[in-house]
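Hello Y.,

Per our agreement to keep a running log of every chain we model this quarter, I'm adding this entry. I've kept the format consistent with earlier entries: sequence first, then predicted structure.
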Amino acid sequence: MLRKFLVIILIFVTGCVQQPQYPSPIPQPSPYDFCGEQNISAVNLCLDNAYKVVYSTPGRGFDYYRADGTVIHCPLVSPEYTSQACKEIIEKEYCADEDICSKLTVEVSRQIAEDFVLNSPTFLFDGIPDSFTFVSYETARCPYCWVFYFTFECRHAGYGNRSGQVLLQVITPHNATVAVNRGRVEWAYLDNKWDMIKQRLIECLKDEDCEHTNCTRMFPNPKCKENTCVCVAECTTNQSCSYLGKDYICIEGECVLM
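Predicted structure for the entry above:
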């Protein structure tokens, strides 16, 4: 009798409590991942968080990516061989005509990088707004990819949200390096020491872990030393170090100040 009573209560509560409404899952991969890929002419956003990838290959047609992860392949064939699903997509105009890849400009990507830095915990904590400066950018080796460089100052030393910490009150300059890949921040570092995405000091195990370190012309080679990325000047002879000054010599492949 007690068990039956508890079941009735459970049914009543379940029916009365409003179930949470979850948004439709974002399709994977992202539509922007197709921008710049070979044999793709356009990427269009569609209704219900879907998108369409149009191919430039003759006869390939397009692929329709639904929010649930399923993909409908729609090759260019005569109408009698076109699937009903593809006919509905074409006839009901589910998708916009605009190619979203056309929006991935260097100006838009720079704004994405700026917003990321300005909303980072380090800057929000005690960054000086008037000190924020865009320095330059470089074009990376992938489609719609750029690396942006910024500088700004904070009123205290340290990184991230430093609430509750004993802080050194000194104007502290920072150099931010932000890589934007197809409209998304891929990696971002402060002073080659702080990972702005993971919000922790950068640690490394090998030199390859430091490949994104922003080094200078004087010391252009990133190295991993004691789990920290540093910049060095590689050399083969003492003459290789002469551009740094007469007090530098080559020791174990690096220019060292004597």
